[in-house]
TrEMBL record:
This is Class I SAM-dependent methyltransferase. Pfam families: Methyltransf_25 (PF13649). Its EC number is 2.1.-.-. GO terms for biological process: methylation. GO terms for molecular function: methyltransferase activity. Residues 67-157 form the Methyltransferase domain. It comes from Spiribacter insolitus. It comes from the Bacteria. Keywords: Methyltransferase, Transferase.
Amino acid sequence: MSERKITETEILNRVYNATDHEALMSAYRDWADQYDSDLLDRFGYVAHVATAKALHEALGGSTDARILDAGCGTGLVGEELVKLGYRHIDALDYSADMLAQAARKGIYGERMQADMKHRLPVDDDAYDAVVCTGTFTYGHVTGDAFDELVRIVRPGGVIVFTIREGAYEEYGYRRRMLDLETAGAWELVSFYDTPYQLEEGNTCKMCSYRVPYRA
Ligand SMILES: C[S@@+](CC[C@H](N)C(=O)[O-])C[C@H]1O[C@@H](n2cnc3c(N)ncnc32)[C@H](O)[C@@H]1O
């Protein structure tokens, strides 16, 4: 591990108060090699474990599922999925530095550097499931990105993601989730509050949806 460039508090401020995409990516560039130890040892991050469990339940334990870990970061969710027996996991993130950390773990198949605010470089119906933890939050990706997740998951497949407490209403996620449900684009499987970082005492919404079969 290289020498620390910035404190945990400073990096969190930069990540959650980034005013534009470049500022956010610059923050992740400076954080990438310390991200896992900060999250796990300092902040008591548990959302990656909870998301893997929620996905496992939504998939009914089908460990041959083809999964995309969107906003994969350093691969903490992927590692949990591997522990549960999943073997076909691709990774997508906009930060080359976070993707490089994920690559070192040797758990992902394809690794894509892509922006979730735009059309993804993925075919329609390509995945049985998409998982996305910690990326629907302050200063990151808005609910407009849900449409692309629906497009790339096959009918009958599932989408499981977290939304940080507070951001859920404030950033319009709730409205977009309900609109997609009303439009029949996805069906709610489960929705509950769960701890995000134990040491920080914060929570997230754990959201699971199924893409319906077409008539
Ligand atoms: C808080 S980290 C979560 C990483 C991982 N899922 C986890 O649970 O540890 C958020 C990730 O979202 C990525 N991200 C932020 N904005 C993005 C965007 N527009 N497109 C793709 N990835 C993005 C960041 O690079 C970062 O790796």
